[in-house]
Structure formats: C-alpha cells, structure tokens
C-alpha cells in the first residue's frame, strides 16, 4: 500500500465516502449520509483524544504531534472504540451496534479505496467488546391496534366535520376575517384527518409520503401524484424509484372532501402543506417581493388575510410539505386530544410508523404473508421476519389445541 495513503488524515476521506453513500445529485442528501457524518465526526474526535475517558489520549503515540492517519488504524483501535461505545456513552445495546456499523462500513469502503489493507473493524477481536443485541423483536415495536386506529380516525373525522360545518354555515354577513378564520380551521382539521387516514390505511412509509429535509427527492406527495378515481398514489419508494401505492376506500372520502375545501391553485400543490406560521410568513414575503411588490403593499396584503396560508392559496405561492418530524408532532397532539390509551415503552402517542405496522398485522392475519408483502412493498422474507410474532402465536394456538385433544383421550 502506498505510504501516501497510510499518511492520509482520517477525516480527509470522509467527504468522498459520504458523497458515495449520499442520495440525490452530488450525494448531498439522505438520512444515512447525515447519520454517518455524525458518527464519523465522533470517531475522529475520539481518535484524536478529544472524546472518551479522562485518561484517553487518542490513537496517535504520545510523543508524536499530528492528527490521526490511516497508519494509526488496526484492529486494536476498533476494538477500543467498540469498548468506548459500549461503556462510556451509556447507549442501549442495539444502538451501540448501529453506531459501530457506521464506522465499520466506512472502514470497508476505505479498504476498497486503497486507504487500508484490511477491514479491521470486522475482525472478531475488534467486535468482541460489542454488546449483544438487546433482543427487541419486531413484534415489540409499536403497531396501532384496531381499537387505537378506530379511536384516532373517529376523533379526527368528528373534528373535521365540526370545523367544516362551522365554516360552511357561517351567516352571509360574517366579517371577512372571521370567515377566513373559519376556513383556516376547517382546512387544518381536514388536512389532519386526511393525513391520519392515509397513515392508518395505506401502510405507506411516512418518509415516502412527506418531505425529508435531508433528501431533495422526497418533497412530499402532491395532488398530481394522486388518482382518487383509480384509488392510487405515486410515491418515491424506499427502493429509490417511483411506484404506485393503493388508496383503499376509507381514505378516498377524506382526501376528496379535503381537496374540495383546499381547491389548490395547481396540482403541484402539496397534499399535506405545512401550517407553520413562521415558515409561511417568510415564504409569502419573499415570493411577493420577487414579484415586485413593495414591502408596505406586502404588509397590507398580509393584514387582509387571517393567515398567510390563505394568502398563499390566493396568490399560488406553493408552500412546502410538512416533514416527517412535523407528522410526529401532529400525531402527538391528536393522540392526546383523542385521549387514546397507549402502553408502549418508547412512544406515548400513536407514532406514524405504527400505522404502517398496524396495517401490516391486519393484512398478515387476514391474507397471509404474500399479500401483505405486496401491499407493504417489502419482500415476503422481510415481512415474515417482522411479523414472526403472529405466526408464533398461531402456532402456539395449534399446539394448545393439540395438547387439549391428546390429553382428553383416556390413557
């Protein structure tokens, strides 16, 4: 191996690695890139002695004044880092495994790129200090139960119906701003209802439905992506390609009535726009300024509307979709308002991914793994693994029935 490669500082390789692993043009997007960048930075700080126990001085010899290079890496370094992750940071077992995998993947890339001669991070001695997985099974992850799904959808449906009725039955002589406030409340309630129904019944991944700030290709579904007559929706799948997802009957009516209320200026409008006032205020100001409006005129236009979202609708200023984090905040608010009983160690609300898993359980129990896999856009093998607790329970019932039958036979 060239001496030049061995003498290369570790962090000189990070950007190339992250570009290779990133998504979008130039490899600048993607959650994996963001998470890997974070862990590589932590590893570099630890290697330099800036992170770790008080007596840890880094991987460079004490009598040498330079930053860590690839010449300093061997399996003992990765063994020590595995020990650091498991002991010094107080992380859960599976989290330690996940963080170490980011560093291990970078190490493997470095071998392929000629920075290292061997994949030290994958050697048995290097991985020995890693804790075993904490044993959490897929069936332990949150899945909306039928009772929870019905309670949440019933709550948002009643809330939306009340808000729409309050708006549409306003007297004709109602003040314009009061009418706008009524429309805004109806729009927000109808958006929340449509979002909950889509998450509850389509089993679409929340990252395929909404905007991901770290991946420019995931800009959130738009009205042009929906075909309510056909019962389908085009989404950018986890496998990095566009594909059609099914819109079952329970979802059609909330989406149709919501669209009628929104009356989007174009089909390129997001189905689930943000209602964040700060974001919309900045967007409206910038867009109207670019159109040549003077600041005082912009202020007058904004004052004439109860909310900037309504001005955006009037002027066809397209807002961004809510983010996946935004969806979690909405569901936290709605779960609390609906007073839903939730007993889960990690989430005290109905999390977005729980809707997908809950629908997966329904499909597996009703139609088996093959049909469920097609609807969930997963391999049958993965579905069997993630919902193995269902099969185990069914086999347990079979065993119980067999025991009762055998035990009932006189000996």
TrEMBL record:
Q: What is this protein called?
A: Site-specific integrase
Keyword Plastid among record annotations: no
Per its UniProt record, what InterPro entries does this chain match? CB (IPR044068), DNA_brk_join_enz (IPR011010), Integrase-like_cat_sf (IPR013762), Integrase_recombinase_N (IPR010998), SAM-like_dom (IPR025269), Tyrosine_recombinase_XerCD (IPR050090)
User: Annotated region Disordered: where?
Assistant: 1-32
Query: Which organism was this protein described from?
Result: Halosimplex rubrum
**What SUPFAM superfamilies does the annotation carry?**
DNA breaking-rejoining enzymes (SSF56349)
The processes (GO biological process) annotated in the record are:
DNA integration; DNA recombination
Renumbered to this chain, the Basic and acidic residues biased-composition regions fall at: 13-26
Q: Cross-referenced PROSITE patterns, in alphabetical order?
A: CB
Keyword DNA-binding applies: yes
Q: Which domain of life is it from?
A: Archaea
User: Which residues are in the Core-binding (CB) domain?
Assistant: 5-111
> What are the protein's GO molecular function terms?
DNA binding
Keywords noted in UniProt: DNA integration, DNA recombination, DNA-binding
């Amino acid at each position: 191996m060239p001496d030049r490669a061995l003498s290369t500082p570790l962090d000189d390789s990070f950007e190339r690695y992250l570009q290779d692993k990133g998504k979008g043009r130039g490899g600048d997007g993607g959650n994996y890139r963001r998470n890997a960048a974070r862990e590589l930075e932590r590893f570099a700080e630890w290697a330099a002695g800036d992170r770790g126990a008080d007596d840890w001085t880094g991987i460079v010899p004490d009598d040498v004044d330079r930053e860590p290079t690839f010449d300093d890496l061997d399996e003992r370094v990765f063994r020590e880092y595995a020990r650091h992750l498991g002991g010094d940071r107080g992380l859960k077992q599976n989290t330690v495994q996940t963080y170490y995998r980011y560093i291990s993947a970078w190490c493997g890339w470095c071998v392929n790129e000629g920075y290292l001669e061997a994949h030290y991070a994958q050697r048995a001695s290097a991985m020995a200090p890693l804790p075993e997985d904490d044993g959490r099974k897929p069936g332990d992850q949150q899945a909306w139960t039928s009772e929870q799904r019905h309670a949440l959808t019933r709550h948002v449906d009643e809330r939306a119906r009340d808000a729409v009725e309050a708006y549409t039955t306003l007297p004709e002589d109602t003040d314009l701003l009061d009418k706008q406030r009524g429309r805004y409340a109806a729009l927000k309630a109808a958006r929340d209802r449509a979002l909950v129904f889509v998450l509850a019944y389509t089993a679409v991944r929340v990252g395929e439905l909404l905007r991901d700030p770290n991946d420019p290709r995931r800009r959130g579904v738009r009205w042009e992506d929906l075909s309510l007559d056909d019962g389908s929706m085009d989404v950018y799948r986890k496998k990095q390609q566009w594909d059609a997802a099914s819109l079952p009957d329970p979802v059609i009516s909330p989406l149709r009535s919501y669209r009628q209320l929104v009356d989007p200026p174009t089909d390129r409008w997001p189905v689930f726009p943000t209602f964040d006032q700060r974001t919309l205020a900045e967007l409206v100001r910038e867009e109207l300024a670019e159109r040549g409006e003077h600041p005082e005129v912009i202020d007058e236009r904004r004052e004439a509307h109860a909310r900037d979202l309504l001005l955006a609708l009037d002027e066809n200023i397209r807002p961004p979709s809510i983010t996946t984090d935004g969806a979690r905040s909405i569901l936290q608010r709605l779960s609390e308002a609906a007073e839903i009983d939730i007993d889960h160690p990690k989430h005290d609300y109905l999390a977005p991914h729980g809707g997908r898993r809950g629908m997966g359980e329904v499909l597996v129990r009703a139609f088996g793994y093959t049909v469920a896999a097609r609807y969930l856009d997963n391999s049958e093998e993965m579905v069997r693994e993630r919902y193995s607790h269902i099969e185990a329970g069914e086999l347990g019932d079979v065993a119980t029935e067999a025991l009762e039958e055998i035990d009932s036979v006189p000996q």
